Amino acid sequence: MSRDKFLKAYANLPEPEREQVIVIIDGKTYTWNVAFTEISNNTKLGDKIITQLKNLGILK
Asked: At what angle do helices 2-11 and 44-55 cross, to 10 degrees?
């Protein structure tokens, strides 16, 4: 469910906003675009990103 919510939020973002950092995991920054790629490909990093976005209250 959170994956779908992320994809919907991403689709509604203006193009320039997608280059903004959305999350930091293990000292590395990730933009909306990188998060989209990781989440779309169902990677372990994508799972970590979703978890972090939930913890930050960005995804509910």
From this structure: 80
Is 38 in a helix, a strand, or coil?
Answer: helix
Contacts of 10 (CB under 8 A, 6+ apart): 18, 32, 35, 36
Please report which helix (H) or strand (E) contains residue 21, including its range.
strand 21-25
Domains of the chain, residue spans: 2-55
Asked if residues 39 and 50 have their Cβ atoms less than 8 Å apart, the reply is: yes
* R_g of the chain, CA atoms, integer Å: 10
pTM above 0.85, yes or no: yes
Q: What is the pLDDT of residues 20-37, one digit of tens each?
A: 999 999 999 999 999 999
